UniProtKB/TrEMBL annotation:
<dbReference type="InterPro" id="IPR024775">
    <property type="entry name" value="DinB-like"/>
</dbReference>
<dbReference type="InterPro" id="IPR034660">
    <property type="entry name" value="DinB/YfiT-like"/>
</dbReference>
<dbReference type="Pfam" id="PF12867">
    <property type="entry name" value="DinB_2"/>
</dbReference>
<protein>
    <submittedName>
        <fullName>DinB family protein</fullName>
    </submittedName>
</protein>
<feature type="domain" description="DinB-like">
    <location>
        <begin position="4"/>
        <end position="154"/>
    </location>
</feature>
Length: 174
């Protein structure tokens, strides 16, 4: 199974376990909710899919070296997401988010299905804000590792939110 597939499988397994009470939970004023994290992942995948379409249709070959995209799975150091992939609160339910995740993945896979010579994925590249220019093939792994990064963020949201609820119940019982 590819990093792309594995990242999504792990993400879906976890989000299918999330009770509704935690969908909109924030662990701080400037943090994202679970639904906002999922929206961010949809936005990232849409941007990448659009770049793939453009570069496969009109791009030119570009020499670039491989980058350690596996580091994208680590939550630290924290990296500020560019404005164009910041969540806007588009999802109100987990069903909405899962539908959008599914659609963005299907759209990406449709673009990949049209690629006759997979070698082109090693020849075309576009810029990542942190790594610099990356081959298209590396962007596919990046998506999977990036989803793992945010899976850890979701776990943290759930853990802290659950602890806050427990602390609140203890306070109420005193």
């Amino acid at each position: 199974m590819s990093v792309l597939e594995l990242g999504r499988q792990e993400l879906l397994t976890k989000i299918n376990e999330i009770p509704e009470a935690y969908w909109h939970a924030r662990i701080s004023d400037d943090s994202w909710t679970v639904l906002e994290v999922l929206e961010h992942l949809v936005l990232i995948e849409k941007v990448i899919k659009n770049q793939f379409e453009n570069l496969l249709r009109d791009g030119v070959d570009r020499e670039t070296h491989e980058h350690p995209v596996h580091r994208s799975a680590k939550r630290y150091p924290a990296v500020e997401a560019p404005d164009y992939v910041q969540p806007t609160g588009a999802f109100q339910t987990l069903i909405d988010a899962k539908g959008a995740l599914d659609q963005s993945r299907q759209n990406l896979l449709q673009v990949l299905e049209q690629v006759e010579d997979r070698e082109i994925l090693k020849k075309r590249a576009f810029k990542h804000p942190y790594f610099g220019h990356m081959q298209l093939i590396q962007w596919l792994d990046f998506i999977g590792y990036h989803e793992r990064r945010h899976l850890e963020q979701i776990k943290e949201i759930l853990e802290i939110s659950s602890q806050k609820r427990s602390d609140s119940k203890v306070s109420e019982n005193k």
